[in-house]
Amino acid sequence: MKAENRSRALSxxxxxxxxxxxxxxxxxxxxxxxIICNEKRFIYVFLASASIMMSVAAAFISAGxxxxxxxxxxxxxxxxxxxxxxxxMLLCALPYLFxxxxxxxxxxxxxxxxxxxxTGLSMIQDLDHVSNGLNMxxxxxxxxxxxxxxxxALTFLTRDTANAYEMYVGEAKDxxxxxxxxxxxxxxxxxxxxxxxxxxIVTMIAGLIxxxxxxxxxxxxxxxxMSGWSTGGFAPTSQNILYYHSFIYxxxxxxxxxxxxxxxxxxYTVLHGNRKELHRNIELISFTITVTILTxxxxxxxxxxxxxxNTIALIRKGFYQLISAHTTTGFxxxxxxxxxxxxxxxxxxxxxxxxxxxxxxxxxxxxxKGLRIGIIFKAICSDIRRYTVPKSRMTTAHxxxxxxxxxxxxxxxxxxxxxxxxxxxxxxxxxxxxCAGYSGVxxxxxxxxxxGNVGLSIGVASPTDxxxxxxxxxxxxxxxxxxxxxxxTLIAQITRxxxxxx
Length: 502
Prior knowledge:
By secondary structure, the chain is mainly α. The chain is built from 23 helices and two strands. It has a two-stranded antiparallel sheet with strand order 1-2.
């Protein structure tokens, strides 16, 4: 039995090594960027960090290669996903550590996890003077994390392996765009790369209209689109989207990060001609309803406190922040402390709800997800109907998500379970913030941002925070992005092995 357990552990290591190797190869892009921009110091930074990551990945692959054909259980597939994210964070933090822009390795890990989970909270120092190579790495991590690092590994480095589906599900994705997890992964990346080409050009043009020099418009257009599409929230300047002072730039980013928050299966369906899905899909219906309600709440709060002088300002500040929160993007067109000092409790409450509700399942967005909100609402309506309508008139409840589906008890139970886990995590993060000395409002806002993988900040997340709060946010971002199950599975596996040794 011990020999079998060891073999299975080495098989898991093999697949983790594959994912780490993909990430190490991705470092070639910021390396090339540094070479083109003549950033000599960062050429060595990326050479050193890529070499270390490749060495670790090669060691994992070599150790597990004899067992690569072993069939993994769902628990082991989830361990591959959550373990890859944990080790990926530790190794992807090396360029940050060598850069000199961070006060500690914890801060480096925080920013990597924030990027990979498409959150956007940051501990970086002197962001306005970061090298192009390092910025490229920041935005690549966000872009890779949005689609999924395991999805990337399945796309480019494996054929149709028997363990692909177990790993794919472990990264909080369960949609089938095509038969087989490998084919689905490739289709997800095809869709993302198609939008990348279009989005880069459009955002670059918006930057030129906003008055950016050509070289800046090109780089910022690429980075802002990568961050927006991945609902990531990172920006190349400390002022975030406020830096551009452009209504066109803001409008373009709203379009792309809203589209980015939609389910990849929806993109696939619409791109293949089924446009009726846009007004039938339960996630889009749920999203439209919650955005409308929360926008009205936000506007009521801002108008009650006379925060903005006119409708244009109300839309550019109020609606932009609200839709950025609801899609879990995290782009900001105002300063963080303005939220705390100017917005008032009602608008802040609407923002917290928006961050927790989030975007769509199997998208780059975080939060509860519109599908689960729609399922629970439909289940409540079904229960009310059961008590108010004669049995002879009762019908089976259905939902429409890509196809018509019967609303089953297992679907409702699963939706409730994940949402409860999100709420518990949000409460833990709020308590941690209050233990660090922040007010209830500040703590709740920042915890909602970390839990929903949003990135909007009210001014709490900073390098001066105590270590326990930074680590709490790292764990929250990690667990929430993978929707808890795969991380809890990894913790259970480690605990079981340690218990057996003792």
